[in-house]
Amino acid sequence: MERLTFDLATTSLRELNTFLHTDAKAGKVEAVTVVNPDGAHNIAVGLDCPINVEVIGHAGYYAGGMNKSATITITGSAGTGVGENMMSGTVHVKGFASNGAGASAQGGLLVIEGDAGLRCGISLKGGNIVVGGSVGSFSAFMAQAGTMVICGDAGDALGDSLYEAVLYVKGSVKSLGADAQFEPMTDADIATVAGLLDKAGLDHDPKAFKRIASQRSLYHWNADANQEY
C-alpha cells in the first residue's frame, strides 16, 4: 500500500475528491496527503472507505463532511461545517474550527484542538465531539444524541433545546439554553470523559468537568405554557 500526495496548487480539488471516491475506495492506497489547500472548500467530503487523509494547512467550508470510516487530519484550522453529518471515522482539526462544526453528526469522532465557533454540534445526532478550547454561543442547539466534551468555556445558550445528548464542560458556561440543566457527575460520566479525552489525545482531569443534560420539559407541547418555557 502506498501514500500519495496531492498538491492543490497544481491539481484541482475535483481531481482529489474523484480519486478519494474511486481509486481510494478500491483500496489502492493507504493514505493521502493534501498540500497547499489554501482554504479550499469541500476537501475530502463524503468518504466511505477506511483511508487516512492528512491536510497540511487550512481547510475551507465542510472539510470532512459526511465522513464514513475515513480518518481525516487537518493540521491547520477549518472553516464552517467541518465534519458535518459525519457517520463514522474521525476528523481531527489541529487548529481552530469555525461555525457549525460537527453539525448533525450521526457517528464518529470530531476533535478540535483549538476553539470552535458558534453552534458547534448543532443538531448532533449521535456523534462525539471533543473541543480542546472553548465553544461559541448556541453550541449543541437541539442536540438529539451523542456527547460533547468541552475543555474550555462555553458561550451563551449552551445546549438550548437539548434532547438526549450529554455535554461535559470543564470551564465556565456563560448561560444555559432552554431546557438544559447541570447534573451531578457519576463514575460513568467520568469514564466517558476520560475515554473521549484519551481518543482525542488531550490531557485533562475528567473529574474537573461538569455534566449538562436535558430537563425534558420540552419533549411535549404544553398548550397551557403560553409560550413560556
From TrEMBL:
GO terms for molecular function: oxidoreductase activity. InterPro entries: Glu_synth_asu_C_sf, Glu_synth_lsu_3. Coiled coil: none annotated. It comes from the Bacteria. PANTHER family: TUNGSTEN FORMYLMETHANOFURAN DEHYDROGENASE, SUBUNIT C (FWDC), TUNGSTEN-CONTAINING FORMYLMETHANOFURAN DEHYDROGENASE 2 SUBUNIT C. This is Protein glxC. It comes from Parazoarcus communis SWub3 = DSM 12120.
